[in-house]
Automatic annotation (TrEMBL):
It comes from Brevibacillus brevis (Bacillus brevis). Keywords: Bacterial flagellum biogenesis, Cell projection, Cilium, Flagellum, Repressor, Transcription, Transcription regulation. The gene is flgM. It comes from the Bacteria. This is Negative regulator of flagellin synthesis. InterPro entries: Anti-sigma-28_factor_FlgM_sf, FlgM, FlgM_C. It holds the Pfam family FlgM.
Length: 91
């Protein structure tokens, strides 16, 4: 078993050099901003969703939660396919 491989130290030095971040005036590390981009298709889908605070939607969500917990929730694959097709045809 070789403990001191010649390339291992060079690789460690290269790794350590990349970890050095630029430090600003206040001694803090400059960080980039996180960014989220929502596609126009996703925005269109959001517009089609019911009002989340409506009583009808709350009832529907409660019923679905109950079915999922009991293991009785089933969605026909035909309905899923229809929704996908109608969405993609309307683009």
């Amino acid at each position: 078993m070789r403990i001191h491989e010649p390339n291992r130290i060079g690789m460690m030095n290269a790794y350590n050099k990349t970890g050095n971040a630029q430090v600003g005036k206040a001694g803090k590390i400059a960080m980039g901003k996180d960014e989220v981009n929502i596609s126009p298709e996703a925005m269109e889908m959001l517009k089609q969703v019911e009002d989340p605070d409506s009583p009808q939607r709350r009832e529907k969500v409660d019923l679905l939660k109950k079915q999922v917990e009991e293991g009785t929730y089933r969605v026909p694959s035909e309905k899923i396919a229809e929704k996908f097709l109608s969405f993609w045809k309307n683009r």
